[in-house]
Design a protein that fits this description.
VC0802-like; homodimer; eight-stranded mixed sheet; six-stranded antiparallel sheet
Chain lengths: 404, 404
């Protein structure tokens, strides 16, 4: 039995017309193979539902919250299947508990643990198309759980991995681009990219795919591609393992995020255990610290410690660190929230030297000051003044010849 | 464990304020006993969902249709429980499959077969309030089913019957009235009424309670009452068995329906089997025929046959009967759709003579012509010209002294 897994995001099921358009893609595909379509809620619906719950409680209790927001995908799935049945496609919508999709116990940020593929195979003997809600599952207590923002991508990859099928993510853009086309007009669509690069791009700000879904596809070696539901005939981007790429480009893409903040603690005592006194309480407060930088002072006793975090968490982090001032033992705390992070990603960096040099040259020539640098095997990230973001991305895109 | 079952209809959960108001009723009640609240969808929501499905198919396929419209109650239940949790009430919303509520196999007009009370008792050990969706269940194939219009009342009574608890229906009126207060300004709220009378009132047009729910309450002897969610302190109407009523009023209430139509077939051969040739095809076409009247012609060979049906079904019925003209063998078919039905209901009719006489006198005095009469043990129904409806109801209400 040949099976394809297709995922349609919120904008691809965001209106009656969008549902019909995406339904036609499913219909076409179902003529060549069995189809499992994983759907998001209609665009805006999840936000509407979240706002509704918030009008009854600042922090809605998790069981009921997940019951409320899971109705969004259930509705879009049912509507899609009604449309397909009307088009004479043998289709049915499923609810996550009917399969079931089993997740970890926690609510609102669950992880998928198990998908009952036997049930799916059995249903595919009766139906040509199954429509499954993304973003949700049930836990071992039989409660509805949700996966957190962007979870539908992960649901789709998990279903594909369980069935050993290909997964195509239909969205409102043509594919993954070398950088944001809103900033660089000649940004190019990437035809093929490795899981690792895609993972770095996704986690560094490219919003086409959710990081967790790429991670899962990489681990399970699931063939993943991204296409536009508006132009389904156009080739999108294929995400695959490095071996399948004929040639590794030195740099594949450039991403940026503007919602960064930086905190610097001056004259922190440089001795074991200090870091955990700083980052332990932050982690407990659910604050994700990203880049960390430490410079030892001249006398070797003290260090200046800087790190970045999401801008929305800045106030909370400052509060925690000020409360712990005497415990940590620092002199001053300095913060800024007008910074952005730019990342240059490419598996070719491993073998090609000079990427960092090109980056420094380009920014230097354009008088853009680099505040922090971090590197990994296939990525260089820098922190700069937010006002230079667009210029930096444009100049780097050109310098690395990504438009060609 | 003392348990109360409360049901809140669409208008009682139709807005944020309504949910909070009804939530406060649940909260108050939960201080004295455990509460199971059965909720409808927010008013208008089920219609919105039905219209959505219809925009994808004229006749949506049943599985997906029920998946779509069942989201309405799931959302209102979750929101209610979020509000209650925020008010420090130990509450959770449940989905019908979690309990489960088992129904007959068919979709869109299912009947409840079984409610797993063990699960409810177990949950009531952990929670003070359970919020349950009305109107829906799952069938033996594990598919979501719905009970048809007004099914939430039936869900509530079924839950109460399963747990041997009292059931209070909260709605947007104070209780059951002697007749429609919009027509008769001094209509009185009925404090106590028997199941049988309520059943006749409900099926004859009093819209406060759904007929099926009264039937079920009567069969299971479930104590049922109706109250206003806007004025929860006010006593409503208690529906109980006849024995608990101290004194039977001759007439308890007067109802009317304006959406009636009448069909007359002239000179039908008066021989066995003709009726089934007429009513068989109508029943197959899902048309509910109500009053039937047959007059034998003077020669004893032919009959004129009249019957009433919902006005919305008139065209369809005429089509069926015209197609079968030669098979049935009638001379002419005559229809009218400007008629209404008025029913006078009361268990006291059994022992008190003269009800019919008062009715005839009253209408005669007011020059209202009676087209058809049918009677049962506790009800007299008449068919009159629609334009006389209000006058007839007003005069009868007065004649039977229902305002006293």
């Amino acid at each position: 039995m040949k099976i394809k897994v297709l995922k349609f995001g919120g904008t691809s099921v965001g209106s009656k017309d969008a549902i019909k358009r995406s339904g036609n893609i499913i219909n076409d595909c179902s003529k060549k193979s069995k189809v499992i379509a994983v759907l998001s809620a209609m665009s805006g619906e999840t936000d509407r539902l979240i706002n509704l719950t918030k009008s009854f409680a600042k922090s809605p209790n998790p069981i009921d919250f997940d019951n409320a927001i899971s109705t969004g995908e259930n509705l879009s799935c049912a509507l899609m299947s009604i449309y397909l049945n009307n088009q004479k496609v043998k289709s049915r919508s499923l609810l996550s508990w009917q399969i079931p999709i089993i997740t970890s116990p926690e609510h609102m940020k669950s992880r998928i643990l198990f998908i009952n593929k036997k049930f799916l195979f059995k249903e595919l003997e009766k139906f040509d198309v199954l429509i499954i809600p993304g973003f949700q599952g049930i836990n071992n207590k039989g409660e509805i759980t949700t996966l957190g923002r962007g979870g539908s991508d992960t649901s789709a990859v998990a279903v594909a991995a369980a069935l050993d099928a290909e997964c195509t993510i239909y969205t409102d853009v043509e594919g993954v681009f070398t950088t944001d086309p809103n900033i660089v007009s000649n940004a190019k669509k990437i035809n093929k990219i490795s899981y690792e690069e895609m993972l770095e791009l996704a986690s560094q700000g490219a919003k086409v795919l959710q990081t967790r879904s790429v991670e899962l596809a990489m681990r399970k070696n699931t063939k993943l591609s991204v296409r536009s539901s508006l132009q389904p005939k156009k080739n999108g981007t294929v995400i695959t393992d490095e071996k399948s790429l004929l040639e590794n480009k030195t740099v594949s893409g450039i991403t940026y995020t503007k919602d960064e903040a930086k905190i610097t603690l001056s004259r922190v005592l440089d001795k074991p255990g200090v870091s955990s006194k700083i980052f332990g309480p932050l982690a407990k407060g659910n604050i994700n610290v990203d880049m960390i930088l430490q410079n030892i002072s001249q006398d070797g006793k003290f260090a200046n410690l800087s790190f970045t975090l999401p801008r929305g968490d800045l106030e909370k982090a400052l509060k925690i660190l000020k409360k712990d001032k005497s415990k940590i033992g620092y002199k001053k705390i300095i913060s800024s929230d007008n910074i952005s992070k730019i990342s240059v990603v490419g598996v070719g960096m491993r073998s090609h030297a000079g990427v960092a040099q090109t980056l420094f040259d380009t920014l230097g020539k354009n008088k853009i000051n680099i505040q922090v640098i971090t590197t990994s095997e296939i990525k260089i990230s820098i922190l700069i003044d937010e006002k230079h973001t667009d210029l930096a991305v444009q100049k780097l895109h050109q310098a690395f010849k990504l438009h060609k």
